Amino acid sequence: MDGPFLYNKYVTGQHFIGRKEDCTILGNLLSQSENVAIWEPYGAGKKSIVHQVMTKLRVSGLKFTTADITALDIRTNEAFVRRLGAAVIRLVASTPNEYEQVVTKYLSGTHFVFDRKAFSDTDTILSTNWDLDDDDLRAVLRLPYRLASGRSDKMFLIIEEFQNLDLTEDGEKVFKMMEQVMDEMRVAGVNNFSYIFLGSQVNAMADIFVRRHFFYRRVEHLKLSKVDERVIVEHIIKGFLASGKVIDRDLISGACRLFKCNLFYINHFTSICDALSKGYIMEPVLLEALETILAINRGRFVAMVSDLTSFQVSLLKAIIDGYTKFSTSEVIRKYSLNSSANVRRLKDALMKKEIITFVGEEERPVLLDPLFEYWLKNYYFKKN
């Protein structure tokens, strides 16, 4: 049975809090069949807002079907198009005969076939009778638009961890093909299919969409707003009250600031508090819950710092100490960073590892994981 604080899956309904304006924007974009990209750190609520909005759209009367795939384990272009093709085929077909009809009708002339034995053995919808070429890839990328064409309802395809397509043998080729197909279908007037690209690797997604300008004017980027601390506090207090428990508002506010309003960490933390307590929840319970969640993540954090060079650790220490400009002679000397050129390399390396990012015109450094930042400050560097 679900408790009041969910962190192991996306949430909708009463468990979804805040971001009303974001929901309105996303709902408008999806209603107009715009492609959308959302990139935020893990646990920020990307899938929650998508499914919350889709629930509201369905209640409002919008008819649509949705497929959801992940690129987390994708390492080849062929694996990606196979997964994409199978997902959209399942939107319009449900039996082997229907699968075969769709493949025969829409992918004739390609090297894709429907193999009944492969389907029976491994649930594979798209098999191949030869090595794939660019025309095969392009045909599958056209497939969702062709299946959507002429339908009265809309079709959405969610691709999680989209940035991992850049890890294939030629991710840029797939991006360019997707752009070409998007343009082609816009000209053809097919306007009831759209992509929703989700990514938890913030810098990798920004590299694709912002720095390298892929999908420019073809995909709308939705930057999720920070959920207001007061909204989170009220949600937590109500959650505890539902199980007959009481907690001081200031204690929860302190937890929100520690976790920087990251909903995954907050819900995980409060669920531990809930399990540890009866009646009135005092500060020792919160401290024990904090130690517990740190213990759960300690191995991951140790692995993260063990993978860093001494220079990279020094730059992290400068960030923890509050510095924002690292190329000054004072900072370079104090943290033994060698040179401004080395600083640029260190910043790039930490961004590629998705440990830090830089925000605003002033490029203020931000650690992407708030609990990792707390662990660094209090356990690794022992600032407090």
Layout of strands and helices, then pairs:
Layout: H1 20-31, E1 35-39, H2 46-59, E2 64-70, H3 77-92, H4 96-106, E3 112-113, H5 116-122, E4 127-128, H6 134-148, E5 154-160, H7 171-188, E6 193-199, H8 202-211, E7 219-221, H9 229-242, E8 246-247, H10 249-258, H11 263-276, E9 280-281, H12 283-306, H13 310-320, H14 329-334, H15 340-352, E10 356-359, E11 364-367, H16 370-380
Parallel strand pairs: 1-6, 1-7, 2-5, 5-6, 8-9
Antiparallel strand pairs: 3-4, 10-11
Q: Can you describe this structure?
A:
The protein has 384 residues and is an alpha/beta fold. It has 16 helices and 11 strands. The chain has a 5-stranded parallel beta sheet, with helices on both faces. β10 and β11 (364-367) form a beta hairpin. α1 (20-31) crosses α2 and α6 runs parallel beside α7 (171-188). It is globular.
Descriptive labels:
alpha/beta; 5-stranded parallel beta sheet; 11 strands; 54% helix; globular
